[in-house]
Recover the amino acids of this structure.
């Protein structure tokens, strides 16, 4: 708008030099009103926990994590698939001379994959041979260890998706971002929306339907996620006209000056590098460019610590983005800015940050009740209004780091020293209770795994305050002191943040996508362990019950750890899948499921080694990855010390049974043989036992 429009001196806003509004285009028949026939459904559901522990899931606070679980649930998708297919067959199929198309808008690539599978399953179950379903998404999607691509799911190259969809064999296109904008298909008559749409995104997505066709008499939208009024509000500002405020050119100078504090860009090096960049025959000047960049790269690498490097990357990226935009709309006479921009773009290629991954909710809860119900049917056409397009350049983030962990006694002593508190052991459990509840919440688990310690601390500060207030009935005086003392708040939050983040990350391992725990590179750590087999040699498959001992040691060590951990059986040291085939063969019984037999045997040997109570801390899941089964054994921390009975070969070559106490140290399992050292660890790990 600022580049191609004109400024109105009265409003000081940039406006289009000529306006042909959405309203006028609809009235004159050049496009269709996509809001004229709009139906909304609401999904009602109820969740029950399916884990042994009893963490507190506040509905409002955990809404995002629980909602993701529900929207991906097989029952939910099955009900919506039935609504979508039956509606299309009964109300849409005869439109446009029997040639209508429909789009299903999913909220993520994984949702698109699950929708494609659910729609195919329903169509096949009903024996409908006249409904063809395609899917469109970018890259590869890992669905609990099974990888999917658009080409693999459709059966032809993804470059042919739009062309094939235009043919008569295909009726539905399931999309996730891809094809939601810029897709021109006049036969598209219906849209089934299962994604939150807001602002301009709602307009762009729904406008895929507005193309005209000689036999097209309207459009239809069935929306599972958005309220009718919200959709109308999203369209209102864009229905008549759109304006943009003027951009402040000082943004560019401010973003450039922000780089000076790091002393990375030196004028003479910038001149040499840009001169090489602008010489003809760039391919022949690569060495000169690299030589000119080398000192800056060296200063970045050796003069800045990790946090400063992350901050410099953010500042450099901001300058590059601001210049790329503002140079188009504002005339700058300062050629140094152009040179710094070219140098910065070249430098940014050599100082790229490491990447980090994401996560999901998983199997900690169970969907017990579900229904999808019609809530609105009619027109939500907009009345008109003016939209405004502000230009913003947000600040960036930094490098994610794993939190450090400290013994609780050290934390308490430091807080006592700083604030003069004198808490008895039962009083100290106040903040432990708050921390345990927070670590058990699904939204905190997601935030802990997906954020840097700095960003997680911002999120946790507000949640910790709410949780402390909720505990007021337990220790009112302590609560009031925490609420009124900013220094105490900071101390407690700083102390408990790494503890909560570690506990929440490990709790997430119980239900995160299995691929998040696999390699390569291997992801073994203090909280994750791999074992290729349970009871057979990975070379020849021969049974050896002594191989069960390392598994039992690891399980016991995770129970004695502060945060628990996850053991993957059927996975090599490199993080690749070895499988459980050989173990299955040793436990096979005719008429019995091999996976069930494996899980029963694993539970029995844990019970025999550590007792009935210990088994309640263990959950076992079988996953199918790369054509093989593997077992995820998630171990929650025990509320008391756990000894394990194991069998070993003594010096005489004879088998003997011993009882031992195991803990995790670094990436390995360690036995405490000194009773005094064990007593010290127990006193530190379970302070309430003092």
């Amino acid at each position: 708008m600022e580049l191609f429009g004109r400024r109105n001196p009265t409003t000081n806003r940039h406006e289009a030099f000529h306006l042909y509004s959405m309203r006028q285009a609809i009235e004159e028949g050049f496009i269709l009103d996509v809001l004229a026939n709009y139906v909304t459904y609401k999904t009602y559901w109820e969740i029950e926990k399916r884990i042994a522990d009893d963490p507190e899931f506040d509905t409002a606070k955990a809404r995002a994590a629980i909602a993701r679980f529900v929207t991906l649930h097989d029952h939910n998708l099955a009900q919506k698939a039935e609504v979508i297919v039956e509606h299309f067959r009964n109300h849409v199929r005869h439109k446009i001379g029997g040639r209508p198309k429909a789009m299903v808008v999913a909220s993520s690539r994984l949702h698109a994959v699950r929708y494609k599978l659910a729609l195919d399953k329903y169509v096949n179950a009903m024996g409908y041979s006249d409904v063809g379903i395609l899917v469109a998404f970018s890259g590869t999607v890992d669905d609990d260890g099974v990888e999917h691509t658009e080409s693999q799911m459709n059966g032809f190259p993804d470059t042919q998706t739009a062309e094939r969809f235009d043919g008569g064999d295909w009726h539905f296109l399931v999309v996730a971002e891809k094809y939601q904008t810029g897709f021109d298909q006049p036969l598209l008559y219906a849209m089934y929306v299962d994604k939150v749409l807001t602002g301009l995104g709602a307009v762009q997505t729904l406008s895929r339907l507005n193309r005209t066709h000689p036999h097209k008499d309207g459009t239809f939208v069935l929306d599972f996620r958005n309220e009718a009024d919200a959709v109308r509000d999203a369209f209102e500002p864009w229905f008549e006209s759109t304006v943009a405020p003027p951009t402040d050119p000082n943004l560019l100078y401010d973003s450039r000056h922000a780089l000076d504090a790091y002393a990375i860009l030196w004028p003479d090096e910038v001149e040499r590098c840009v001169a090489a960049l602008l010489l003809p025959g760039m391919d022949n000047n690569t060495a000169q460019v690299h030589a000119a960049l080398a000192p800056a790269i060296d200063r970045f690498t050796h003069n800045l610590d990790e946090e400063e490097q992350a901050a410099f990357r953010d500042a450099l990226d901001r300058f590059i983005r601001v210049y790329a935009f503002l140079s188009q709309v504002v005339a700058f006479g300062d050629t140094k800015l152009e040179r710094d921009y070219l140098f910065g773009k070249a430098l940014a290629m050599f100082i790229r940050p490491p990447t980090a991954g994401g996560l999901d909710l998983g199997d900690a809860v169970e969907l017990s009740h579900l229904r999808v119900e019609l809530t609105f049917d009619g027109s939500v056409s907009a009345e008109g209004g003016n939209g405004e397009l502000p230009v913003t350049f947000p600040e960036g983030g930094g490098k994610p780091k794993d939190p450090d962990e400290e013994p609780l006694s050290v934390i308490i002593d430091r807080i006592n020293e700083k604030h003069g508190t004198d808490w008895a052991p039962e009083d100290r459990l106040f903040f432990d209770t708050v921390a345990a509840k927070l670590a058990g919440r699904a939204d905190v688990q997601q935030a802990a795994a997906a954020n840097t310690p700095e960003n997680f601390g911002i999120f946790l500060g507000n949640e910790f305050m709410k949780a402390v207030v909720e505990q007021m009935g337990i220790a009112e005086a302590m609560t009031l002191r925490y609420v009124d003392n900013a220094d105490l708040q900071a101390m407690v939050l700083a102390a408990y943040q790494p503890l909560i983040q570690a506990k929440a990350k490990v709790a997430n391992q119980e239900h995160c996508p299995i691929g998040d725990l696999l390699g390569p590179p291997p992801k073994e750590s203090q909280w994750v362990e791999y074992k290729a087999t349970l009871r057979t040699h990975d070379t020849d498959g021969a049974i050896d019950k002594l191989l069960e001992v390392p598994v039992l040691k690891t399980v016991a060590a995770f129970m004695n750890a502060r945060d628990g951990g996850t053991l993957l059986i059927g996975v090599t040291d490199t993080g690749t899948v070895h499988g459980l085939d050989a173990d299955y063969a040793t436990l096979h019984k005719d008429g019995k499921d091999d996976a069930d037999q494996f899980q029963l045997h694993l539970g029995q040997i844990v019970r025999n080694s550590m007792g009935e109570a210990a088994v309640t801390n263990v959950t076992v899941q079988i996953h199918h990855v790369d054509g093989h089964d593997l077992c995820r054994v998630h171990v929650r921390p025990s509320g008391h010390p756990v000894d394990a009975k194991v069998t070993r070969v003594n010096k005489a070559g004879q088998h003997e049974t011993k009882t031992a106490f195991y803990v995790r140290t670094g990436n390995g399992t360690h036995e405490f043989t000194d009773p005094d050292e064990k007593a010290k660890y127990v006193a530190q790990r379970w302070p309430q036992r003092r």
